[in-house]
């Protein structure tokens, strides 16, 4: 359905043309997230994975990262939606590396630090950091930038938010895999 309608191209076009309109951006982000859902449990490869790769090929990452730096992110719910959308696009090692090259790691850590008291933002930032931590260079960069400390702070501030705690533990666990220096840094945080 997504391929036949050109829905991804439309969503990217909306982000390009209407980037200053928060409701249009949120609608386009919703389309992007919906297109990345696992759609057929019988299939070996989800079309959602292919749709995420196609969205990245349409150069949606620079658009989303530019929006992440816009004044619209002063609204926590908007920021959470952007981080959630980026999280759904981190499906391959190459995409994670591309995001790292676009400075997404430091930006996400900064946004988490700025909005650590908002549970929705903290959850989506932790989810993004958990997903992008599949790449060894990314997980090393996150710890070097103090991302693990921001995650632990979020965990301490939101002890009763199960979804945020789950994503935070996933992020810390992914960062610790195969990197003993990260394990030490996380334990000391």
From TrEMBL:
Q: Which InterPro entries match?
A: ARM-like (IPR011989), ARM-type_fold (IPR016024), Armadillo (IPR000225)
Give a yes or no for keyword Repeat in this entry: yes
Query: Is Nucleotide-binding found in the keyword set?
Result: no
| Keyword annotations from UniProtKB, A to Z | Repeat
**Superkingdom of this protein's organism:** Eukaryota
User: What's the protein called, per UniProt?
Assistant: Armadillo repeat-containing protein 8
Give the species: Calcidiscus leptoporus
């Amino acid at each position: 359905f997504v391929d036949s309608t050109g829905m991804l191209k439309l969503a990217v076009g909306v982000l390009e043309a209407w980037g200053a309109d928060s409701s249009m951006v949120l609608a386009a982000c919703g389309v992007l997230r919906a297109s990345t859902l696992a759609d057929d449990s019988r299939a070996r490869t989800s079309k959602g994975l292919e749709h995420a790769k196609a969205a990245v090929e349409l150069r949606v990452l620079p658009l989303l990262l530019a929006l992440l730096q816009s004044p619209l992110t002063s609204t926590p719910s908007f920021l959470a939606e952007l981080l959630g959308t980026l999280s759904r696009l981190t499906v391959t090692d190459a995409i994670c590396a591309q995001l790292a090259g676009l400075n997404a790691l430091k930006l996400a850590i900064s946004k988490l630090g700025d909005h650590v008291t908002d549970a929705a933002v903290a959850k989506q930032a932790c989810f993004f950091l958990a997903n992008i931590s599949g790449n060894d260079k990314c997980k090393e960069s996150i710890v070097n930038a103090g991302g693990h400390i921001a995650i632990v702070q979020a965990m301490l501030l939101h002890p009763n938010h199960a979804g945020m705690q789950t994503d935070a533990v996933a992020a810390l666990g992914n960062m610790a895999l195969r990197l003993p220096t990260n394990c030490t840094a996380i334990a000391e945080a």
